[in-house]
Amino acid sequence: MPQISLELERKLVTAVERMPAFPKSVQTILEMTRNINCLPKDLVGVIEKDPVMTMKILRVINSAYYGLPNKITSVGQSVVYLGINTIKNLALSFAAVGILPRFNTTGFDIQRYLLHSLTVAAVARLLCEKYARAEADPGDCYIAGLLHDFGKVVFAQFMSGEFMKALAFTVDRGMPLYAAETEAIGADHAYVGALLAKKWQFAEPLVNCIRDHHAAHAEPGAMLDCLRMADAICRKHEFGDSGNPWRDEEAAQLPGRFGGDIEVVSAALGDLEKIVADAQAFAQIGTAK
Amino acid sequence: MKIKMWGVRGSIPSPGPRTVRYGGNTTCIEVRGDDDSLIILDAGTGIFPLAQTLLARLPVMANIFITHTHWDHIQGLPFFVPLFIPGNQVCIHGAYDIVSMQGIEQVMNVQMQYSFFPIREAELRARIEYRTLTVGEPVAIGAAMVTPVLMNHPVTDLGYRIECNGKSMFFTGDHEPWGNIYAPDDPGHGEYQAMIDQRQAELDRAIGPVDVLICDSAYTSAEYPPKIGWGHGTFDHAIAMARRIGAGRLLCTHHEPTRGDDELESVFAEALARNPDPGCEVLLAYEGMEIEL
Question: A240 and A164 in one domain?
């Protein structure tokens, strides 16, 4: 059972609250909000592409003060509850923290990480729409994709020495990054991401998806299946880089609900070029590779 | 339960001959429970004349519930004279501000900074307490129960449902019905509309049937389109809400500051003509209006 000390947990929770967001969203939010008539849907379109901003908004809206009957699981839903002006000002306060540097001391490229997160989010939504509409919400699958690897940015930002070691283990020993993290840090990004999400009272299915996205034996569910298949497709096609290269032996452990292996499912989704191009435009990367 | 309107104007005080019948003070409502416990909804400039009436009977024990911290709902707070008198007790209730990450305790602290007001909060002599509310959690004030409900406005905004011995009222504070941020042919339109419909149903349930609904009715339907997103509703919105929740009586308030009395009556008559069967008595709120339930 992975674990981190209570002291480290406290440190991470506090640190993440002060975490800067991604460059493109910070820049776009600052530009858009100079215009008093900026369209709410455009603002939402930017915020929901930034894992840090999305995470922070879900954190504040799910806090106890609002006593909401159901957990809020999307940026759009947050706008319905808090109003666009509040969301706009929250986004501005996140933007004021600064921007994540493209490379930190670990060499982990956050732009390629963002490209990975955005493509997984979009593909997970697509899978849900196509295969699991009756069982899961496509918007929830999008958020699960966007936030599933959140623990990695946390490691890269706040535990850079240990994370650098884990990244090196992955390359040198050919082991999955989550296993390397457990060895170098004592817990993997899925565990830490879920721990933070739970602490911030995110919806339980989202917390579970973040926790279980590498757990081949976790109880299957539509949202988790969409996330795991989307993650596999994006890693196999090298849409961005999650620091965890695709290994062919993973194919056998993928969920079976999509009626074929990863190649078949991927082909059935059609051309993913638009998803990748949109994500690239946001992540500010010229090439997917 | 008794209700008295002390300020019915929206946005900015609007005194003068054109507003003499309905009044120019901004939002303030006095509510008395059956045990005479004092609940004040909002501290717009209408709280100043209310304060004068309270001084005859000291000590004052007041519970002020702030819907939101825009100026027209708090401007009278530093002029609430009972705050200056030792022996009085004033509890100020309100929302947690998600952007400033502060509770309602910031409301006077901010207003009474040196450059803006000559007296510091620390110099007030009454016993002052702040209670940051949790949405949906009722607060007992004497015989009455006050339940905060999250509304829709460009800042965190609470409406208040007050119940006392089987009688009830709801004040929306400022409120605009939700609109879809996507155009009908945008991909997100349907999903967003479903969220709005769910939210509207939740709000209607939280308000529930009441004897009196006091509702933001700032605009006419014709004035509304360029003001979408400003956080206020129309007479027609208010009538629709009253009908949905099953209100016994509807008081339209937050009158547009540029609207004189004659014009207010004229646009109100037009709204009633458009809604010939509103399902309840519909009235224009005016300063000094009293209702006993």
Answer: yes
Question: Which stretch of DSSP H or E encloses residue A81?
Answer: helix A75-82
Q: Provide the CATH number for the domain around residue A141.
A: 1.10.3210.10
Does B178 contact A41 at a Cβ distance shorter than 8 Å? no
By C-alpha distance, the chain B residue nearest A60 is: B98
pLDDT in tens, chain A (289 residues): 556 788 888 888 888 888 999 999 999 999 999 998 899 999 999 999 999 999 999 998 998 778 787 889 999 999 999 999 999 999 999 999 999 988 878 888 999 999 999 999 999 999 999 999 999 999 999 999 999 999 999 999 889 999 999 999 999 998 999 999 999 998 999 999 999 999 989 999 999 999 999 998 899 899 999 999 999 999 999 999 999 999 999 999 999 999 999 999 999 999 999 999 999 999 876 543 3
Structural domain total, chain A: 2
Q: Which ipTM score applies to this complex?
A: 0.91
d(CA A156, CA A109): 9
Q: What pTM did the predictor assign?
A: 0.92
Q: Which residues contact A194 (CB under 8 A, 6 or more apart)?
A: A151, A207, A208, A210, A211
A144 and A223, same domain (yes or no): yes
Cβ atoms < 10 Å from Cβ of B55: 12
Contacting B residues, span 93-132, partner chain A, CB-CB under 8 Å: 95-96, 98-99, 132
